[in-house]
Amino acid sequence: MRRSDLPESFVLGTATAAYQIEGATHEDGRGESIWDAFTRVPGAIADGSTADVADDHYHRYAEDVALMGDLGFDAYRFSIAWPRIQPDGKGAPNRAGIDFYRRLAGGLRDRGITPWATLYHWDLPQALEDRGGWLERDTARRFADYAEQVSDALGDLVTDWITLNEPWCSAFLGYASGHHAPGRTVGSRAAHAAHHLLLGHGHALEALRATVPSARVGTTLNLYSVQPAGDSTADADAARRIDGLSNRLFLDPVLTGSYPADVLDDLGETEWFAEHATDDDLRLISAPIDFLGVNYYSRHTVASGFTPAKDAPASAYPGSEHVRFVKTGAPVTQMGWEIHPDGMVDVLRQANALAPSLPLYITENGAAYPDRVDADGRIDDGARTEYLEAHLEAARDAIDSGLPLGGYFIWSLIDNWEWAWGYSRRFGLVHVDYRTQRRTPKRSAAWMADFLRDAVPASRA
Ligand code: FCB
Question: Which residues form the active site (predicted)?
C-alpha cells in the first residue's frame, strides 16, 4: 500500500490530548481539572502516576512540532485544556493559557502543518465538577462560554475544530463505571451527562459558527463495530444494546436529531429524556456539522446471559449488565483490544447511512504495545507498523467503496500518559524516555515518514 493509493486531498496526521502530554499542571495560572483530582484517588491509576509532567510538552512543544514536520505529516490534532483557559470554569480567559495555544498553532502553521483543535478532551475544570459536572445542564452553558473565548482567541490560526472527544467515555466511564474522572458511579443517570455533553457540543458549534465564520466544525465519537457472538435472538439483542449504548445514543441525536427510543428504554431513562431533552436541545445538537470525527480502535463481540456477581464493579453499560463481552481469539494489542481493521469500514458505513454526504475523518486509530529499546537505542515496533498499515488499507477500502473519508489521524504522535493506565501503555510513533524526556522515533515513525513521502511530487522530493 502506498500513499498514492489514497486521494491527493486525503489528510494524514497524528493526534494527542492536552492532559496526556502537556504536564505543567500548576503553571501559568492553570486551574485544577477532574483528572488532577482523580489521580489522587488511591488505586485509580494503574501505576499510581500523575500527569504533572507527562511529556513536558508545555515546554517542549516546539521540539514536538519540529518532529511531526520532519516526519512529513499534513495535520495535527491536539486539544485545548479548559482549565488553562478558565481555571475555575468561568470568567475571563487566562492570557497565559491562550498564548500557549497561539504559539502552538502558529508554530504548526509555520511548518505547514494544519492545526485541528479539540475543545474538550476530558479535562473538565474541577470547579465545575464541584457543582455537579456533566450531570448538570449548566455545564453545557459554561462550555459554550469557553468555546466562544477559545474561538475568539484562536480563530485566526485554527480553521478545523472538534467540539468533543468521545462523549461516551466522558459520560459512561466518568459517571457509570467510574474508571475515568470524575470516578462517579450513578448508573443509568450517566445518560444525563451524555445529553449535557451533546448539548455542550450544540452550544459550542453555535459559538464557533458565530465567531469564526470560516471554521469547519465537527465532533468526534468513538464507534465500535458490534457483532453478536452467536445466532440466538438473545445474542442479537445483546448486540442491539451495545451498539445502542456505544454508537447510536450519540450518532442518532447528532446526525438525525432524535435519541434512539430502544436505548433510552434499556437505560430506563425514557421519562427523563422526554422531560429534559427538549426539541430546542435537539435542534442545537443536530445543527449541521462540516464533518464527523470517528475514533476507531476495535470491535465488540457480545453475548447475552451473564449474571454479574452481587459485588461486581459498576458497569459502563447500565441496564445491560447481563451482556457478556466475548473474546473471539483474534489477535489483540496490549490494551486487550481485538485487531479488526474491517470494523473501521463498518463504523464509517454506519455513520454514512445516517448522513450520506457528510465528510468523515478517522480522528484516532493506533495501538499500544510493550515496546523495547534495543541495545542500539532503536525501537523496532513491527506490530504497531503492521496495525497502522492494515488500518490505512481499511481507509483505502472505505474510500474505494464510496465512503466520504477525508483523512486519518494516528493515535499518537508520542508515547503519553494513558489515563487510568498511567505511563504503562505506549501508543506513540515516537518513544519518550520519561526520565530524560528524550524523544526517539520508532520504526513505525520511519515507516510512516516513508509512506508520507510517496505522495510528494518528484519535482519537490
Ligand atoms: C481514546 C482516547 C485517547 C487515548 C486513546 C488510546 O479513547 O480518546 O485519549 O486514550 O483512546
Answer: 364
